[in-house]
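Researcher: Structure prediction, please.
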Amino acid sequence: MTELKGHGADPAASQRAAALPGLRSEERGTSERATREGRASKAARRRAARKLQRLEERESVIPVELYGLRRGTVTLLTVLAFAFAIFTLVPIVWIVINSTKTQANIFETFGFWFARPFSFFHNFSLLFQNVDGYGTYIQWFGNTALYAVIGGVGATALSAFAGYGFARFSFRGSKVLFYFTIAALLVPITALTLPLYLTYAKAHLINSIWGMILPSMISPVGIYLMKVYVEISVPRELIDAARIDGAGEARIFFRVALPLMVPGFMTVLLISVVAVWNNYFLPLLIFNINTKYPLTVGLGLWSERAQNSGNAQLFPMVVIGGLVTIIPLIALFLILQRYWRGGLLFGSIAN
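Model: Predicted structure follows.
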């Protein structure tokens, strides 16, 4: 009987064993088809998404006719903008290329192409040295950053306060005071040289960093820009609603008005920082100690020294020093530009 049972079980087992590879192959084929179909569907969705994105971009472009300008006028303006871009970028290209040259190559080779030896890293290392005892570039860079940060932030904060006050508060003499503030733009700085120096001498601000910082915190341009921006972007109804809800003036400014003023705030910040960073006349007037010079005065001192001495390192130092000087300003512009785009978008939605 055992043999019969074993003999009877063998056909079923053999049939299952024979059918198993076919089932496995069918499962593999099914899974491969599902994988291919999934990949095809994903590719189709990606193509549809790209097509939809192109359509949205095409719809977002405003036709030239809607600007009210002829195509020839648009072409002319485009050419002028391109020419202005070249005019602006040419000095930057020149200073980047010549920062890699020795002093002899700066004067003897073509200014808009590189030359051997490649001396960029050698020239950069000179910025850490005190050449001829006139001071180090790194120290002047730190002074400039200190003056620009404190003076720029202070000027921006005061401009925001003053601009908001002129725009949203009515008090006796506000217009006259605002006109006096704007009139300060018409006074040339050279006319203030002697009275400014005498005032600083009386106040003991000669060779003091506060003599550089305090005047930098006064920005008539910033006050004007913030006043105009507050009038456009901060509705009176919103402020009145906050007052009805019981909010104080300080809370209204910091919680309601200031978030709407961010694009204008960042614009004034950039203008103020760049103004302090590039200021030459004021530090030249109040500083006679080279350890407190900013970059503008320090590089001017190096340039004068390079023309009157035979030091072969000074001209490459002036060139690469100028390159390093503009890098923080370019970086600051790239960081803050998103706030301007947000402000333009907000203005388009509000309108």
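Model: Residues 83 and 247 are 52 Å apart (CA to CA).
Researcher: Thanks, that helps.
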